[in-house]
Amino acid sequence: MIELKDIHISFGNHKVLDGVNLEVKKGESVVVIGRSGSGKTVLIKHIIGLLKPDYGEVWVDGIKVNELKEKELNQLRKKFGMLFQYAALFDSMTVGENVAFALMQNTRMKREAIEKRVKECLRMVGLEDVGHMNPAELSGGMKKRVGLARAIALQPEIILYDEPSTGLDPIMADAINNLIIELREKLNVTSVSITHDMVSAFKIADRVAMLYEGKIIETGSPEEIKSSPNPVVQQFIHGEAKGPIPSLE
Amino acid sequence: MFLLFLKSLVWIFRPPFQFRLIANQMEEFGIRSLPVVLLTGAFTGMVFALQSYHGFHRFGAETLIGPAVSLSLTRELGPVLTGLMVAGRTGSAIAAEIGTMKVTEQIDALETLATNPIKYLVVPRILSGIIMLPILTVFAVGIGMLGGYVVSVYMMGANPTIYVKSSFDILYLEDITNGLIKAAFFGLVIALVGCYYGFYAKGGAKGVGQGTTKAVVVACMSILILDFFLSKILWGIII
Predict the structure, then answer these.
(1) Which of B105, B120, B121, B125 to mutate to test the interface with A (most CBs of A within 10 A)?
(2) Is A144 on the interface with B (CB under 8 A)?
(3) Within a domain: residue A176?
(4) Does A168 fall in a domain?
(5) Which residues of A touch B97 (CB under 8 A)?
(6) How far is Cα B212 from Cα A33, in angstroms, rounded to an integer?
(7) Domain range spanning residue B194?
(8) What does DSSP assign to residue B157?
(9) Cβ atoms within 10 A of the Cβ of A89, count?
């Protein structure tokens, strides 16, 4: 289980998170929605310990993440997989080496076993034959799928998705959404996604949480969010320029 | 930067040791820098012999050209010019590569894959800098002395036997070892400065470009400043 308790963080004078509380149960898929620049990525980076809060606590499976030492944090990170917004593939390595990276660094698996696992992961994302290619040769959608293959290589219990459908055409975005759902069903992972793509959010979420002005202002099932009386939520999910959220900020 | 150095120092001695990465970086630092270092060394030796000849000829001391070339190359010009050339070539590449990794979240990705970026990126570069700079310096000094010989003997008509004998007789072992110790420090500085400005690159391509420029300028200045103090310390103890 993941728990964020009263998370505050500022960068310079800019307060990004101002008391975020969020709970994600085991096996659940929670999607955090919010405007660009609202702090969604900052929030997700707290879960995996890439950022430490100025104030507040991050708990994962009973372990307080923000007080862990490097070694313990790395041990905990083996439970996680993370898909980055622009995939963040290592461009000095081939696709296969990218997927094999965590296995080479963190396990004592033999070369043959690693190759087998890499193929398995690439097959799951429908890219079995691109192992020899360089990331620069791939399209945006393919990069995301390779990023996903890399994220699941260590068979994580929790997967974090940073804007999984951003920058993709609607068909590819839907293919990625299906992949996320499939991975959750097949591997029974807990997932936390952040997005401002409402189609994607409602499709992959068990529960949706809206981040606004540094706080989670509403959580609920996709249906509950759709029928929320909160005008901020309504304006955001319908993508309207007029409303309580200033459109040009 | 000092903090980055201390962290790297701790990670150097912590297993697992990344021998493949160190070998890759040694190739980048050493083998790929060799042509530029050889060219610099050769022409430095040649021009030094040429200028020395005109200076020493005024008071009939042409036999001192060989010793002047060999001493200046081993003690100063070899390590310093090698350091400056490698700072321009490899230091900038390190800053640009790590800076790009930083702004494209590849360093965050390393951390999420339970890999320490200092262990994975900084340590191999520092170690290969410390190992490869002295080796490159040996090549630079060797080719520089050969360049000096060619100019002195074939262009200025110096006696080859006397030239070679005087070039080597003047050298103490400390001249060579201290020059190489300086080169090792320069290797450390180039790698550390490159990594530092890469790690702290911000704001996309512009930030990476600024980081790369700073890395080269700071590394070159550090080499020149460090050269003075290292020379004072290393030879100051002996004399």
Answers:
(1) B105
(2) no
(3) yes
(4) yes
(5) 92
(6) 37
(7) 2-10+19-234
(8) -
(9) 28
Nearest residue of A to residue B102 by CA position?
Answer: A88
Task: Answer yes or no: is A165 within a domain.
Answer: yes
Residue B6 forms contact with A (CB below 8 Å): no
Please tell me chain A's helix, strand, coil percentages from 3-state DSSP, rounded to the nearest 5: 40, 25, 35
Q: Which two tokens stand for residue B200?
A: 């702290």
Q: Quote the longest CA-to-CA distance of chain A.
A: 58
Residue A187 inside a domain? The answer is yes
What is the helix (H) or strand (E) element at residue B138, kind and residue range? helix B123-149
A82/B contact by beta carbon, under 8 A? yes
* Best of A84, A106, A148 to mutate (most B CBs within 10 Å, chain B): A84
The interface predicted TM-score (ipTM) is 0.89
Where in the sequence is the domain holding A181, given as residue range(s)? 29-38+69-196
Locate the chain A residue with the closest alpha carbon to B109: A88
Peptide bond into B16 cis (omega under 30): yes
Instruction: Per-residue pLDDT tens, chain A, 249 aa: give them.
Output: 899 999 999 998 899 999 999 999 998 999 999 988 889 999 999 999 999 999 999 999 999 998 899 889 999 999 999 999 999 999 999 999 999 999 998 888 899 999 999 999 999 888 888 999 999 999 888 999 999 999 999 999 999 999 988 878 888 888 889 988 988 888 789 999 999 889 999 999 999 999 999 999 999 999 999 998 999 899 988 887 777 777 655
Q: How many structural domains compose chain A?
A: 1
Please check whether residue B112 lies inside any domain of the structure: yes
Task: Specify if B239 maps to a domain.
Answer: no
E-strand ranges in B125-214 read none
Closest CA to A31 of A146, A166, A192: A192
Sign of CA dihedral B201, B203, B208, B211: negative
B18, B25, B100, B112: which to substitute to probe chain A, counting the most A Cβ within 10 Å? Answer: B112
Cα B184 from Cα B189, distance rounded (Å)? 9
